[in-house]
Design brief:
alpha/beta, five-stranded parallel beta sheet
C-alpha cells in the first residue's frame, strides 16, 4: 500500500489498516464482517484464489463434514439461515464451499479479501505498537492487529518416505487434490492412512480403481453417519426452531444440540447400556457419542470399554473375512481418545470387495520401508501401484501458524515460544506477541467441538476485546505470564484426567515426527470455555495486561 493509503492508528503511528486477518475460511470471513461492521479497516489475505479455507483445499473424492449441516454453518445471521437451505444431513465439500461463497457475496466481503496472497512473516514493532506483515510477493503492510484465521487442520503432513522421487507413477496428498481430479480407472491405487479423510476416500474410491490397496497403521472406530437428503418439511421445522437449537448447542460440551439418553451409565446394567447404544447407532453420527454425556464416556474407562466393544462387534459383523475384520478392529485406544470418524458410505463393507485389499503396516504387521519406482515396499512385500494417495492428515493445531515466521517482542519467534508445545491464554493470545489473536488457536475447544460455533465465539470475543481497548484508551493487549502458565497447566490437567492420554493422535501431535507430544485442544467443553471467556471479559479482561498510547484519551468516569 502507498503512503497515501496509510491511516493513523490508535498509537498515533501510521498503519495501512487496523487489522490484518490471515485466511478466508469460516474464521476469516466472520472476523472481517464483525470488525468491518464496527468501523475498522480490515484486510484479509488468502493464499488460495477463492474463499472457503479447508473446504477450498480439501477437494478429494468423498470429502464431507462430520457435523450435521443445519449446525455446520453460521448462526449470527437470520437472513442467511432463512435463505440458504442444505440438501443433505452431512454436506459434501462442494456444497459447503458453495455456502461460504454465498455468505461472502451476501455480506459483500470480497472487496476486502486479497486472493492468491500468502503471508510469509509478521514482525512486532514494540516502539510503534504495530505489526509489519510481509507477503510472499514482497509487499509489506503495517497493521495494529494481526489475527490468524488459518484453521486447525490446514497444514498438510506428508511422511518423508525414502524413494518417493523415484516413483514412476503419480502421487497426491488428499488436502492438495488436483483441480482436474484423478482418473482411477484401470489403475492400481494405494492409499496410506485410515483416519477420517482416509475412510472417506476409501469408501468413495472402492470399486472405481482396478485395485485399491489400503495401507493401514492404526484402525479407527467409524460410526455410521446415516446420511440422507433433507426433506422440505424437515428443514422448515429446523428453521422454526433455530433459536432453540443454537441456544442448546452453545450450552453443550461439543457445540451440538443433542440430548443424551442418560447422563451416566453407572446405574445401568450392561444390557441397558447396549440397548441405549443400539438406538443411537441407528441414529448415527455424533448422536451416538451423546448416548451418555460425552464427558462421561471420555472419563470413565469402564463405560468406554463397553462402548468400544460394542463398536468392535459392529465392525466384525460387517466384514466377511475374519482376518481382515480383526485388522480393522481398534484395540490400542478407547473410543473417542482420537477424533471419532464417521462412516458415510458403508466403509467396512468396502473390504468385502475382491478389488480392495488391506495391508497392516503397523509395527506388528509389515511396516513401509520405502517407495520404489514401481510402488510401495514393506518389510514383507512390494506392491505395484500406478497412483499413491497420502491420506496422512495434517500438522494439526499449530502447523499453519508456525508456517509463518512470526516474531514478537525482543525478537522472540513463535517457533521458539512453542518449541515445547503451544503456550497460550484461552487459546486466544500468547505472551510476548501483543495484539496477535489466534481464532480457534491451540488450547481452545476448536476441533473437539462443532467448529462454526467455536469460531463465532472466538470472533465475537476478539471484536468485543478490540472495542473495549479503544473505549478505554488501550493501545496493546497480551496475557500475563501467570495467566498463560495457569491456562496451559489447566488444559493439560483436564486432558490427563480424560482418556485422551490413552491414544497416540494428532490431538497431541503424535503423527508428526519430532513434534513435542502435548494435548493441544482445550478438553473442558465449549460450555465451560464460553463461561470462562465471558467471566474474563466481565472482569475487565482478567489475566491480560494493557499498554496505553501516550495520546490516548482517558476513559470516561
Amino acid at each position: 500500500m502507498s503512503d497515501a493509503d496509510a491511516r493513523t492508528g490508535r498509537a498515533g503511528s501510521n498503519t495501512d489498516v487496523d487489522a490484518v486477518v490471515v485466511g478466508a475460511g469460516f474464521s476469516g470471513l466472520y472476523m472481517l464482517h464483525r470488525l468491518r461492521e464496527r468501523g475498522y479497516d480490515v484486510q484479509v489475505y488468502e493464499k488460495g484464489d477463492g474463499v472457503g479455507g479447508t473446504w477450498y483445499w480439501n477437494t478429494y473424492p468423498g470429502a464431507r463434514c462430520d457435523s450435521e449441516s443445519h449446525i455446520y454453518c453460521y448462526s449470527f445471521s437470520d437472513e442467511i439461515r432463512e435463505t440458504w437451505e442444505w440438501t443433505e444431513r452431512y454436506p459434501e465439500q462442494p456444497e459447503i464451499l458453495e455456502y461460504l461463497n454465498y455468505v461472502a457475496d451476501e455480506l459483500d466481503l470480497r472487496r476486502d479479501i486479497a486472493f492468491e496472497r500468502e503471508v510469509e512473516s509478521a514482525t512486532y514493532d514494540e516502539d510503534a505498537g504495530t505489526w509489519t506483515v510481509a507477503l510472499a510477493d514482497g509487499e509489506v503492510v503495517e497493521t495494529r492487529f494481526f489475527i490468524t484465521g488459518v484453521g486447525c487442520l490446514s497444514e498438510p503432513f506428508k511422511p518423508d518416505f525414502d524413494g518417493l522421487d523415484e516413483f514412476e507413477g503419480e502421487w497426491h496428498h488428499t488436502s492438495r487434490w488436483p483441480d482436474e481430479g484423478v482418473d482411477f480407472s484401470d489403475k492400481h491405487v494405494g492409499v496410506i492412512g485410515t483416519g477420517s479423510t482416509g475412510i472417506q476416500f476409501i469408501s468413495e474410491t472402492g470399486g472405481k480403481a482396478e485395485h485399491l490397496t489400503v495401507f493401514q497403521r492404526t484402525p479407527n472406530y467409524a460410526v455410521p453417519a446415516r446420511n440422507r437428503p433433507l426433506e422440505d418439511d424437515e428443514y422448515e421445522e429446523i428453521r422454526a426452531n433455530y433459536d432453540e437449537i443454537w441456544e442448546k448447542a452453545r450450552d453443550s460440551r461439543l457445540g451440538m444440540p443433542f440430548d443424551h439418553e442418560h447422563y451416566s451409565a453407572a446405574s445401568l446394567s450392561e444390557e441397558e447400556i447396549r440397548e441405549t447404544l443400539e438406538d443411537r447407532w441407528q441414529q448415527g453420527g455424533f448422536r451416538f457419542l451423546h448416548a451418555f454425556e460425552p464427558g462421561h464416556v471420555l472419563t470413565n474407562m469402564e463405560v468406554n470399554a463397553v462402548v468400544s466393544e460394542f463398536i468392535r462387534e459392529k465392525i466384525r459383523a460387517k466384514v466377511d473375512d475374519p482376518e481382515t475384520a480383526e485388522k480393522l478392529v481398534p484395540s490400542d485406544h478407547p473410543y473417542g481418545a482420537k477424533r471419532p470418524p464417521m462412516d458415510y458410505n458403508d466403509y467396512y463393507r468396502t473390504y468385502n470387495r475382491d478389488d480392495v485389499s488391506l495391508v497392516d503396516v503397523s509395527d506388528d504387521g509389515e511396516p513401509i520401508e520405502r517407495v520404489t519406482a514401481r510402488g510401495i515396499q514393506t518389510t514383507a512385500d512390494e506392491y505395484d501401484l500406478d497412483v499413491i494417495v497420502f491420506a496422512t492428515g495434517f500438522d494439526a493445531m499449530t502447523g499453519a501458524i508456525l508456517a509463518m515466521d512470526i516474531e514478537g517482542r525482543d525478537g522472540l519467534t513463535m517457533q521458539e515460544k512453542w518449541a515445547d508445545g503451544p503456550r497460550t491464554y484461552l487459546g486466544l493470545m500468547t505472551r510476548g506477541f501483543p495484539n496477535l489473536f489466534t481464532i480457534t488457536g491451540p488450547q481452545s475447544p476448536s476441533v473437539l467441538t462443532n467448529m462454526p460455533l467455536s469460531i463465532e465465539q472466538h470472533v465475537e470475543w476478539i471484536e468485543d476485546c478490540i472495542g473495549y481497548m479503544d473505549e478505554h484508551g488501550h493501545d496493546t493487549i497480551e496475557p500475563t505470564e501467570a495467566s498463560e502458565t495457569q491456562w496451559v497447566t489447566n488444559t493439560n490437567m483436564l486432558a490427563d484426567n480424560m482418556l485422551f492420554s490413552e491414544a497416540d493422535s494428532w490431538y497431541r501431535g503424535d503423527n508428526v515426527p519430532g513434534k513435542t507430544a502435548v494435548f493441544t485442544p482445550f478438553p473442558g467443553g465449549l460450555d465451560m470455555y464460553r463461561d470462562i471467556c465471558d467471566r474474563v471479559a466481565r472482569d475487565d479482561y482478567d489475566g491480560f495486561e494493557f499498554s496505553d498510547a501516550a495520546d490516548a484519551p482517558l476513559p470516561e468516569q
